[in-house]
Every structure is written in structure tokens, then in C-alpha cells.
Write a structure and sequence with these properties.
Elements: H1 23-33, H2 40-54, E1 56-57, H3 58-61, H4 70-76, E2 78-79, H5 81-94, E3 99-108, E4 111-122, E5 125-129, E6 160-161, H6 171-178
Helix pairs in contact: 1-5, 2-5, 4-5
Length: about 190
């Protein structure tokens, strides 16, 4: 699938959710990048691994909170897929790696839900990454040479990889999380 994105420089800014310049985010980016010798791929891998492994997936952990912004996710230590993607995007952008937000449409019983991912611009191309968190049957890994996402899509079930790489989170996702609705969270 070819991703649809704007110029990489557009994916370095901050907003009220992807808080790239928040002191806690900047400090985490600096700490994760300290041993990477200026290698953006090594930094991106370290940030991905940290968010995937150190921030619990709220559903898996049974955590009732609904963090939305990067700093809320850091403070809670947990978040839904979207929230984890917001934190990872903020940390990567703080470290100079262009990062956007993207989504999958996945089946859920009789309906569908959106699943939140990030896309990083490294080695001259966009690469989707899934910081959701691993568990039995789910193994998402950082990769620049083939996607290793948590969920493969099944087009026959109406599922789809959505190709747009967004600079800011989808407004509907933010609104649903702020209302504490699970309908969009995976």
C-alpha cells in the first residue's frame, strides 16, 4: 500500500495532543536518543520499543483511564492504541523524525473500529509502525523493510488499511477519547 502524505517537514510540529515541545516529551526523546549516536533509525526503534513496551495498552491492562495527549499518556503509563500513537509521534518529532498518524479499519463483532498507528519518514520513505503493545497472538515490531503491525486487515470482512498520513489526530478519535467512548478504540 502506498501511503498518502505531505512533505516530511509538515510532520515535525506540535499540537494540543501531539505535544512535541512538552518538557516531559523532550526529556524522554533526549534520554532515548542519548545512546543512538545521532542515528535517526536507531532512535526511532528505541522510541518505538519504549512506547510499545513501557506504556501499557489500556484494554489489555484493564485500565479505565482515557489518556489522549502525549503528556497524559506519560502520566498515566497507559493508553489505547491512539494514545500510544500520539505519544510515539510526539517523542519522535521531538527527536527530529517526521512522524504522522494513520489508521486501520478493523472488524469488531458486527461492526468496525479504527486502530491507531504512526508512520515515520526514514530512509526517504514512509513506514507504518504499530506501538499498540504485544501480547499472546499480537506481535508488532519496528521495521523499515516490511510492515509488522499488530493486525493484518481482511478486505473480505470490510477491513482496510487507510493510506492517509495525518499531521494531527483525526478529530473524531480525539472527541471519542475525550468522551470516554470505546467505540473507536481497539
Amino acid at each position: 500500500m502506498e501511503l498518502i502524505a505531505g512533505p516530511p517537514a509538515a510532520y515535525l510540529g506540535a499540537d494540543e495532543v501531539v505535544e512535541t515541545s512538552a518538557p516531559a516529551v523532550v526529556a524522554l526523546a533526549a534520554r532515548l536518543g542519548a545512546n543512538q549516536a545521532g542515528d535517526p533509525v536507531a532512535f526511532a526503534r528505541a522510541a518505538f520499543d519504549w512506547v510499545r513496551d513501557e506504556i501499557a495498552h489500556a484494554g489489555d491492562a484493564g485500565d479505565p483511564r482515557f489518556a489522549v495527549s502525549a503528556t497524559e499518556v506519560l502520566a498515566d503509563g497507559a493508553g489505547w492504541c491512539y494514545a500510544k500513537a500520539h505519544l510515539l509521534a510526539a517523542v519522535l518529532r521531538a527527536g527530529g523524525v517526521p512522524t504522522g498518524l494513520c489508521y486501520q479499519r478493523l472488524g469488531d463483532g458486527d461492526g468496525h473500529v479504527l486502530h491507531g498507528l504512526v508512520a515515520v519518514h526514514l530512509d526517504g520513505a514512509w513506514h507504518r509502525q504499530d506501538p499498540r503493545g504485544n501480547k499472546p497472538g499480537v506481535a508488532a515490531e519496528f521495521s523499515l523493510d516490511g510492515e509488522r503491525l499488530a493486525w493484518p486487515v481482511d478486505p473480505a470482512a470490510g477491513e482496510a488499511d487507510l493510506p492517509e498520513v495525518h499531521v494531527a489526530p483525526a478529530p473524531g478519535v480525539v472527541a471519542a477519547l475525550r468522551r470516554h467512548e470505546l467505540a473507536v478504540a481497539l
